[in-house]
């Protein structure tokens, strides 16, 4: 999760610089926020046995702060119509987390049952998080451009899924390792698609129009320079004749 957050920070530096979210979707950041919230809760002694999942708490705790920051930045630079969409999804994310936390504390009184509830919901969200790049992959295949699926993000997605898979197997926790069973092949697919389309680029009508305008402007400049040169030559000839 932390690898995703670091790469998302690169994306949001671009958003802040351009003062626009462009075609970036808010869905991955919302799913990432919910995932971090759930697994931070999962790793706390309220759900887990004492501090057996301390690394899960620390990594996802940082993830909560970063993902929340990304959502705020996204809200600042997205269109008014998109702000409504982000607000609705944010309400849903908060509601899911609050209901999960409340049920695990007040309705379940055994650590095993609490881990089963929170871990199962967290696992589903994690699978959705790893599946969210499918939207980007579809766009890459359609446009034949990798602009919205940068290589560092795909590499870190692969690294993160492999590391969490290994850690989950070592501590024998199916909820920690489970999502990476899906995440690892998806991240490999991202890399395959990236290297397939990285050198291809589609020039749209707007770009063609700009190029045509640029060509016309260049022609005008060349014509003007030629006229000036001809004018200078005529003056020189006239002066010579007068002498």
From TrEMBL:
Q: Which UniProt keywords apply?
A: Membrane, Repeat, Sugar transport, Transmembrane, Transmembrane helix, Transport
The keyword Mitochondrion appears for this protein: no
Supply one GO molecular-function term: sugar transmembrane transporter activity
On whether Transport is a keyword of this UniProt record, the answer is yes
Gene3D superfamilies attached here?
Answer: 1.20.1280.290
Query: Where does the record place it?
Result: Endomembrane system
* Top-rank lineage group of the source organism: Eukaryota
Q: Which residues cross the membrane?
A: 26-44, 56-77, 86-109, 115-136, 148-169, 175-195
InterPro entries listed in its UniProt record: SWEET (IPR047664), SWEET_rpt (IPR004316)
GO BP term, pick one:
protein homooligomerization
- What task does this protein carry out? Mediates both low-affinity uptake and efflux of sugar across the membrane.
Q: What's the name of the protein? A: Bidirectional sugar transporter SWEET
Please report the organism this UniProt entry assigns to the protein. Answer: Pisum sativum (Garden pea)
